[in-house]
Structure formats: C-alpha cells, structure tokens
Amino acid sequence: MDIVLTGTGSPLPDPLRAGPSTLVKAGDTHVLVDAGRGVVMRLAGAGSLPAFLSGVLITHLHSDHVCALNDVITTHWVMTQGNVPLKVYGPVGTAQFVERQVHALEPDIGYRIAHHDVLTSPPNVEVTELEPGDSFSINDVQVTTAATEHAPVRPTIGFRLEHEGSTAALVGDTIPCDGVDELASGADVYVQTVIRRDAVEAIPNPMMQDILDYHSGVVDAAQTAARVGAKRLALTHMVPAPSPEQYSEWIARAGEHFDGEVLIGDDLMTITV
User: Phi then psi for 233, rounded to 5 degrees?
Assistant: First the structure.
C-alpha cells in the first residue's frame, strides 16, 4: 500500500504545497482523503486521476480540505462520461455540501451536456455520511472511522485504512484525543496535520493565535505516535511550512518524544507500507 502526500499545504497559499489531501494506492484501488486546492493536478503527478478513484474520504468541511472537491467531481464526470458514480464518504453534513457543490456547477454542467452527446445527465455522486466507529470496505481496503477533536468544527472524523496486513492512519486536523489513539494504534504510518506551536505563538495575528486551540503540534503528534506504538510518523499541513533547511529541526523536535522514523511531508512524497 502506497500513501502519497498529494497535498501538504495549509490555508496559507504556498507555491510548493497543494492543499491538504492524501492518496492511498492499494493495488488497483485508489482512495483520496480530503480534496484541497490543486488536488487534481497532484493526482496526475501521483499516477492517478479522478476517474481512477474508488472513493473519496472527507475528514471535515473546512474549506482548505474540500475546496477542490468540485474539480474532482467535474473531472471524474467528464472522464467517465457520466457512466460511473463518484463515491464520497464523510461526516454528517457532507451530503448537503456535495449537493451545493453540484448546484454551483450547474451552468458548466448544462454547457457540457448541450455540447457532448455522451453526457446525458449531471454528475452522479453517491454520498455516504459516516458516524464515528463506522467500518466499511472500499474494494479490498478496510476503512475504520473515529471521532477527532477540531472544535468548533463538528463533526470531524479520521480514518484507518488496512490492506493486506498494512495499516495507515490519516486523521486530519485535530488535537490529541482518544479517537486519534484508536486510529493510529500500531499503524505502519500515522499521518498527522501539525503546527509548530512556538512559531505560531510568535506571529502577532489574532487569527493565527486562534489555530493553537484546535491543531496538534509537532510534539503532540510525536507523543501520540509513541503512546500508540505507530511505526512511522509523517507530518503534513505544516504551519508555518518549513523550508528544507529547517526539516532537521522539526525532526529533532519530534525525535525527543518518538523513537520511530519521522517524515516531513513534501508534495508527492510516497510512503510504502
């Protein structure tokens, strides 16, 4: 199973980092987790495309995690000529969000149906809303959910994906909580969105200070990885994003609390488990 970090950025625009998203490739099964800005281009760079997706998993409805879902929907629809439904799984509220996305696309949908005889109906998006603790399969990939903590954003969920004995935990934006521990327990790789608390605290901007309340720091993620026995820790959605020269500092900070391998995510980094 390959875990491809298709977007390691955050709400802060970065020319080197697309918005938050991760692609899981398990044989012919491709599963996308979140759909931040630029995700379709990064899917192409990862050897995938929206038409190849067996499912899209959404952790929560913050804009930076879903703002390119409309691109995934449109591109999947056009590439499959409307013959294959796009399956989307997410917390309660996802169905309404997708419905509104498709409504916003109505002018484009109308143009394309008028122009292309093979397109006879709007995009077919099948949405399944999930509760914490739900477990289901996408082809031969087993998916388990648990509640995460990102208040005031509610509900939020994370995912544990298992395939042929390999396990990956992709938990989204959250502070440490029981749900994260459950998902990451013994995982071959635990992928966590993080902030550098010391760096954020030094930014004299009230909105930046607010993010301290509901994100895991580097130390938090490392302590979680150690506590649950994860084998590797991959950091993504880093705020503020480090330069390559700073990677060793981030790894050292995490390494004070976790003995396993620590990876600083770059777009299109592939982690094989």
Answer: -120, 120
Average pLDDT for 216-232:
98
**Residue 85 contacts residue 125 (beta carbons within 8 Å):** yes
- State the pairing for strand pair 21-26/135-138: unpaired
CA–CA dist 255, 129 (Å, integer): 37
Summarize pLDDT for 5-27 with one digit per residue, the tens: 999 999 999 999 999 999 999 99
Question: Domain containing 166 — which CATH number?
Answer: 3.60.15.10
> How far, rounded to the nearest angstrom, does the alpha carbon of residue 109 sit from its chain's CA centroid?
27
What separation, in Å, do the N-terminal and C-terminal C-alpha atoms of the chain show? 5
Q: Known catalytic residues?
A: 64
Domain total in the chain: 1
HSE on the CB side for 209, CA within 13 Å? 6
- Which residues touch 248 (CB under 8 Å, ≥6 apart)? none
Helix (H, G, I), strand (E, B) or coil at 259: coil
User: Containing H/E element for 90?
Assistant: strand 86-91
Contact partners, residue 117, CB within 8 Å, separation at least 6: none
Phi and psi at 143, nearest 5°, equal -120, 130
- Determine the Cα–Cα distance for residues 157 and 260; give it in Å rounded to an integer: 25
**Which range marks the domain in which residue 135 is found?**
2-272
Q: Give me the pLDDT at residue 85, please.
A: 98
What is the longest distance spanned by two Cα atoms in the chain? 61
pTM for the predicted model, two decimal places: 0.98
Report the distance separating Cα 39 and Cα 197, nearest Å: 27
Residue 242's φ and ψ, nearest 5 degrees, are -80, 155
